[in-house]
Amino acid sequence: MSAHDHAEGQLPHEPEKATLEARNKILGFWIFLGAETVLFGTLFSAFLALRHNIGDGPTANELFQLPMVFAATMILLTSSLTSVFAVQALHHHNKKSMIGWLIVTIVLGLCFLGLEIYEFKEYVHEGHGFTTSAFSSSFYTLVGFHGAHVAFGVVWIGIVIGQIFKKGLTVVTAPKVYISAIYWHFIDVVWVFIFTVVYLMGKVAG
Amino acid sequence: MSSNHDHSASGEATKRHKVEGPQKHIVGFVMSLALTIIAFAAVSAGEINATFTYIILVSMAVIQVFIQMAFWMHMKDRGHLFPIIGILAGVFVVFTMVIMALYWVWW
Predict the structure, then answer these.
(1) Which residues between 76 and 105 in chain B have a beta carbon less than 8 angstroms from any beta carbon of chain A?
(2) Residues in chain A, pLDDT under 70
(3) Which Gene Ontology BP annotations are present (chain A) (predicted)?
């Protein structure tokens, strides 16, 4: 297999696409992202259909605090930028700076998760439990599913960093970095729709 | 793909091939930031009527997603026809479902 022929420092241009296997992995991942789009779309459509059915619980307008949502948005947006910097470092074959940017991405992801856990705790405190209303159930399912994706991404990128430490930057490990970065951007793209549809529209609807 | 694998130093590789700089990603970040702030400001202002605010919010989100997918997910680069088809297939199903859900509830 030619994949192991390249020693470090002799990586081809764009090492994440150097082998057919790598290109197939990237293509397969995009098809997976198409399916993820459908998954989140179903949750969004359920939320849109049920968001006014608040039962005895608080309304979206009473519940949501825009400064906190804005902070979470900034954290995730910045982490998307740092993961694209990691891919650029990969293109420059700069292993150290790539790992650095990946770690920054993970830390920002953890900050986002911490903020989300705090937020959910506050909501439950205010009488907005999972089973309070159709609105609360669809809210927690949609936003919680996104949070679970962030948590999965943090673990995934952590494992990829471990592999890079162990095996170095090769044409085998490079696509893993690239694909996890694409996944991370996708999470940020989904969040753009969450803060728009769930939080901002919730504030408008009153 | 890349034709010349014969370069020995990685530093040379970055010179011979055009490796993208961080500028356009920072431009993408600033644009995303601006679109996010517009969306939050439109809601915080509160004085604009609801329908118009919805239109602003949805357009800001759609523009931002296009920017992020094109720049950060490299979709504008060559050889991304199948990724685009994959995502468009997903978006088609999503549109169908969202319209169904709204139609089912509102009419």
Answers:
(1) 82-83, 86-87, 89-91, 93-95, 97-98, 100-102, 104-105
(2) 1-9, 206
(3) aerobic electron transport chain
Q: B98 and A45: CB-CB below 8 Å?
A: yes
**In CATH, what number is assigned to the domain containing residue A79?**
1.20.120.80
Is there a single domain that holds both residue B89 and residue B45? no
Q: Do B98 and A34 touch (CB under 8 A)?
A: no
Range of the domain at B43: 17-76
Q: How many domains does chain A have?
A: 1
Does B88 fall in a domain?
Answer: yes
H helix intervals, chain B: 10-16, 23-45, 50-71, 81-106
| ipTM of this complex prediction, to 2 decimal places | 0.84
Q: How far from chain centre, in Å, is Cα A106? A: 10
Tokens matching residue A191 = 């969040």
A13, A38, A42: best to mutate for the B interface, most B CBs within 10 A: A13
Report whether A40 contacts B95 (CB < 8 A).
Answer: no
Using alpha carbons, select from A194, A197, A46, A54 the residue that is nearest to residue B102.
A46
pLDDT in tens, chain B (107 residues): 444 444 444 444 444 456 667 888 899 999 999 999 999 998 988 777 888 888 989 999 999 999 998 888 887 777 788 888 999 999 999 999 998 888 877 66
Question: Tokens for A195?
Answer: 């803060």
User: Between B13, B93, B102, which is nearest A38 by CB?
Assistant: B93
Rounded Cα–Cα distance for residues A89 and A103 (Å): 13
